[in-house]
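#structure-requests
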Amino acid sequence: MGKKYYTNKGSKDNIIISIAGVHGIGKTTIFNLLKKKLGDNPKFKFFPERYIKIPPFPFGSDDKQIAFRSEIHFLQQLIRRNKNITNFNNKYNGRVIFLDRTPICVLVYSKGLYLKEKDYNLINDMYKSVKWKEDCIVYLTAETDTILKRIIQRGSIDNTRKDWNEDDKKYLLEILSYYNQFLFSKTQTKKVFTIDTNKSTAENVIEEIKKIVIDLSGYSFNKYDNSSSTQKILKEFM
């Protein structure tokens, strides 16, 4: 049998959209909510941020060696994901592909963790060696205090993630600063859509993303919306 193609849009290319933002902003919640709503729709495909649930090194560590290893690990996971996206892209077209996190996050966090220059340069060289599959970025943002409240409310500071320093306000501000530098630099060529989630519910954010996807692809959501199964995720976001 030959390759399978989704033919409703003819030979239209896939659209690959990353859900991006600092830790605690709610991007994985939004990603999972979209997947709940649209996972049964063949027009949409979802790729997680990583394939290893419990990372071998804590993210956000003050220890520079551990921080370097954690970012190398994360970059390896994103490279693996990118290969899977490439394989999918070669087989199917006419899809909207959602990614949890943008690959740029590795550079953002490597800068925010103040890695040694030679370690950052190694990560940057590896990042640049990959032909990343990503067309546009949906960047979720909010005020710092709002993000910190979400981090605490979702119970992130537990035994598994206590070394990630997610509740460190200075660290959070550094990461936010570097996201702005990388996403909105003159050399950054991807389209970035910013959504302020400060006074929004998860459902509001989903509606904004729907508008973006409709503008980019012309696809309709209504037929495949499975709102009844998303209440738990909405509560987690809030």
